[in-house]
Amino acid sequence: MTPVLVSHPLCPYVQRAAIVLAEKGVPYERRDIDLAAKPDWFLAVSPLGKTPVLLAGGAALFESAVICEYLDETHAPRLHPSDALLRAQQRSWMEFGSALLNLIGGFYNAADERALAAKAAEIHARFGQVEAALGEGPYFMGEQFGMVDAVFGPVFRYFDVFDTIAEFGMLAGLPRSAAWRAALAARPSVRQAAPANYPDLLRAFLLKRGAALSVRMVR
Ligand SMILES: N[C@@H](CCC(=O)N[C@@H](CS)C(=O)NCC(=O)O)C(=O)O
């Protein structure tokens, strides 16, 4: 049976799974739900009430990292390295990517300009750490696209919309991070992971926050 990815169009965690599915050429059905009015069938398969959920093999898998790992173990090509230590390092950086998503949430929910600038500076500092971990590229591990790339594609997708609002300098002076962002933006799996109207949907979502960033958008 075709796997079903239970999704929300703006969810960066869903995008991770969509990227991994695309990298492996696995056909799947994407089923979007309204997270503001979660249907009963969704609550029955998502114990935490969150997207993504992957319905596959008669099971419902939740938590994006778990879904990605399952897909990596069951479908070629492997995105993780075969060496256990290198694989563990990739997982560490996947966690780092999740921490960045939390910071991004703090950024777009910041109540005032001061908090907004502080969050932008924090994100910039985190990317300073990423910069130090990056090699020659084009991807996180080098020539081969991997799981950390699937995690950071959706992170950079936020920046594409933030950049239309103002220059927040999140990657200022970080050439390797900037080059990595460009490489991920060009990757077909990353491009198709969100709907074509994602920028409009994200802008509408950000406007509704009533946060400092929303105020910037209507200035
Ligand atoms: N740790 C989870 C996070 C998933 C998550 O936060 N999903 C959000 C949408 S992007 C969600 O479903 N939120 C709904 C809610 O918390 O009620 C994962 O990696 O899958």
TrEMBL record:
One Gene Ontology molecular-function label: glutathione transferase activity
Record's catalysed reaction(s): RX + glutathione = an S-substituted glutathione + a halide anion + H(+)
Domain GST N-terminal as annotated: residue spans: 1-79
Enzyme Commission numbers on file: 2.5.1.18
Segments forming domain GST C-terminal: 83-205
Keyword Kinase found: no
GO (cellular component) term, any one: cytoplasm
Keywords from the UniProt entry: Transferase
Top-level class of the enzyme under EC nomenclature: transferase
Pfam families (UniProt xref): GST_C_2, GST_N_3
InterPro entries: Glutathione-S-Trfase_C-like, Glutathione_S-Trfase, Glutathione_S-Trfase_N, GST_Omega/HSP26, Omega/Tau-like
Protein name: Glutathione S-transferase
Lineage of origin: Bacteria, Pseudomonadati, Pseudomonadota, Betaproteobacteria, Burkholderiales
